From TrEMBL:
It holds the Pfam family GARS_C. This is Phosphoribosylamine--glycine ligase. Keywords: ATP-binding, Ligase, Nucleotide-binding, Purine biosynthesis. InterPro entries: ATP-grasp, ATP_grasp_subdomain_1, PreATP-grasp_dom_sf, PRibGlycinamid_synth_ATP-grasp, PRibGlycinamide_synth, PRibGlycinamide_synth_C-dom, PRibGlycinamide_synth_C_sf, PRibGlycinamide_synth_CS. It comes from Zafaria cholistanensis. The lineage of its organism: Bacteria, Bacillati, Actinomycetota, Actinomycetes, Micrococcales. Residues 107-307 form the ATP-grasp domain. It catalyses: 5-phospho-beta-D-ribosylamine + glycine + ATP = N(1)-(5-phospho-beta-D-ribosyl)glycinamide + ADP + phosphate + H(+). Belongs to the GARS family. It is an enzyme of class 6 (ligase). Its cofactor is Mg(2+); Mn(2+). Its EC number is 6.3.4.13.
Length: 428
């Protein structure tokens, strides 16, 4: 089958690599892609958020399946336009993607479906925000209601900082969701859905803060690992029963069936599982290590979801290894990342056994050099027998790569490797 992947980032590079390994995928294209994706498959300079342009490209290529990676094209209605044109699409409609595009909408869906989540209030002005902050107390959690590429959330002990973030959202014409703080480690679970049936992938954990020790501002994610040896038995089954299926049923009941990836961002608290947020697509950087372990052909799985036949899909099979992904970011990320710096060592890193280098914010300059072109530039994924081994592989790859001002965290998966993550009051 011929597959077209929409998106420019590391998540899309991971999807492309997995689809390349699928014997049923005979032709593979990406739009707009990046410098790394362009080395693997043909790329097309199409605006991913322009529904008409994406439909025209899919027609030109004769695509059998279109896979939409990022949230912005979903919110722009690209999947709707493709479906109207008769293409099988992996990615929810604009209406269903509201689960990510509006945190207030997601809270309403969870309330109707009985899904466990943090108590929350929606605020549209400073007075409402101040009341909500005082009601929940510190640590304060303030979320921009709309899409913010993973950087619209502030968690702080400083009430003034929390209120300032709310006011910045109001000034931009938005609203905020203020909620109770959830204790406990966070888990990402991707659930593939065809609108009625669902299949979970392997849980992962990502690292959102820019600096070691979970310090500094939030980012889109600085690394991730999978599987999670410290999770309690039956965790995935419980999430499917209490979170994924109730949400999928509620979306179907509303006339907006969810077809694509329901990304469940979860906290494992003393009171049990709580949903932090939903996303409507594969998460970045978790996709990179998760798909590195998936043995089941990805194309068939995504096509089954796109065509409502997920109940007929084969059971998923996973590599026994552990995967750790480390993000390398540009200088001055997450504020105003520096672009255009030549990157060295890419081939040397990729030549290490068990290491793969996935491009996110990269481009090719006039001299043919691969250069930085975004905040998060690369994800280096290591596969190993356990977390210590996988970490060693990933960081060996990182050590080969460089550019002016490159930055990365040195502690991705370190606590888990050392057995230091606590759940439900007990040490894993």
């Amino acid at each position: 089958m011929k597959v077209l992947v929409i998106g420019p980032g590391g998540r899309e590079h991971a999807i492309v690599r997995s689809l390349q390994a699928d014997p049923y995928v005979t032709e593979l294209h990406c739009a707009p892609g990046n410098a790394g994706i362009a080395q693997d498959v043909p790329v097309h300079a199409v605006d991913a958020q322009d529904p008409a342009a994406v439909v025209a490209l899919a027609r030109e290529l004769g695509s059998d399946l279109v896979v939409i990676g990022p949230e912005a094209p979903l919110a722009a209605g690209v999947s709707d336009a493709l479906r109207e044109a008769g293409f099988p699409v992996f990615g929810p409609s604009r209406a269903a993607a509201q689960l990510e595009a509006s945190k207030a909408f997601a809270k309403d869906v969870m309330a109707e479906a009985g899904v466990p989540t943090a108590m929350a209030r929606v605020a549209v002005n400073e007075a409402e925000a101040a009341d909500a902050l005082d009601a929940f107390g510190a640590p304060y959690v303030v979320k921009d209601d709309g899409l913010a590429a993973g950087k619209g959330v502030v968690v702080t002990e400083d009430r003034a900082e929390a209120l300032a973030h709310a006011n910045a959202c109001f000034a931009a014409g938005g609203s905020v969701v203020i909620e109770e703080f959830l204790d406990g480690p966070e888990v990402s679970l991707f659930v593939i859905s065809d609108g009625r049936h669902a299949v979970p992938l392997a849980p992962a954990q990502d690292f959102k803060r820019i600096f070691d020790g979970d310090l500094g501002p939030n980012t889109g994610g600085m690394g991730a690992y999978t599987p999670l040896p410290w999770l309690p038995a039956g965790f995935v089954d419980e999430v499917m029963e209490r979170v994924a299926y109730p949400t999928i049923r509620e979306m179907a009941a509303r006339g907006t069936p969810f077809v694509g990836v329901l990304y469940c961002g979860l906290a494992v608290t003393r009171r049990g599982i709580r949903v932090i947020e939903f996303n409507a697509r594969f998460g970045d950087p978790e996709t990179q290590p998760v798909l590195a372990r998936l043995k089941t052909p990805l194309g068939g799985l995504l096509m089954a979801a796109a065509t409502g036949k997920l109940d007929d899909a084969e059971q998923l099979h996973w590599r026994p290894e552990t995967a750790v992904g480390v993000v390398m970011a540009a200088a001055n990320y997450p504020d105003s990342p520096v672009k255009g710096d030549p990157i060295s060592g890419l081939e040397a890193a990729a030549a290490i056994e068990g290491v793969s280098v996935l491009h996110a914010g990269t481009a090719t300059n006039d001299d043919g050099e691969t250069v930085t072109a975004g905040g998060r530039v690369l994800a280096v994924v290591g596969l190993g027998a356990d977390l210590h081994s996988a970490r060693a592989k990933a960081y060996a790859g990182v050590a080969e790569i460089g550019w002016k001002g490159a930055q990365h965290r040195t502690d991705i998966a370190l606590k888990a490797a050392n057995g230091e993550i606590t759940v439900s009051g007990g040490a894993a």
